[in-house]
Predict the structure.
Amino acid sequence: MKVSSTVLRRLHSLTGVLPVGLFLMEHLYSNAATARGPEHFNAVIRFFSSIPFLIVLELGLVGALLYHGLVGIWISFTGRSNVALYRYPRNWMYSLQRVSGLITFPFVLYHLWQFRLGRVIFGFELDYEVVRQTIVNPWVSFIYVLGVMAAAFHFGNGLWSFSIVWGIATGPKAQSAAGWVGNSIGAILYLLGMISLYGLDVPLLTIVISSAISVAGGVLLAYLPGLRARLALGAP
């Protein structure tokens, strides 16, 4: 039975919030425990490691993540744009949403390999010091600043399109409010991520410079004519 593209897009929108988006919020909030010191962070790790049927929850989450990521790539490179010029802020948001998704998906896979699959394959114990020694590498720090920023923006901006696709925000005022709420949530998630990195001894200057480079790079990618034609979709 052939599944319509509308159904695929609806499921793509849904999985981006439930469960992937909710997990992102929880994950960044929990990781901010690094700011309270190694003992508190290690206690958080022990708590989540003790959850019953954890592997089942993880497999379900990974399945939703893979679906959302792969369908998102398909949407990004097969959708046709009806936006000729960037005259309105939301046209930029459409493009940045696609760019941030194309950054977030490989970053999350990298993160899973580093701290989940690597843990299973190589059998190391995950704790504050293991994470800190990995993250303080300047290149890894940059990857994490870029990845967290992309993920936070992608989820926050995605909440706006989710509210439209599912009929939550139907009028101009409601859609504008949904945009402000989504972007505010994205900003909070970004700050939580940076707090986590700072708590792992990543220098503040590294965070600031990496953030600036990430923003400039994202805007440049969204503006490039070749990507603009592919990524600036005319519908959520």
Q: What stands out?
A: Residues 81-87, 232-236 have pLDDT under 50 and may be disordered. The radius of gyration is 18 Å. Residues 5-231 form a domain with the 3 helical TM bundles of succinate and fumarate reductases fold (CATH 1.20.1300.10). The first helix runs from residue 5 to 17.
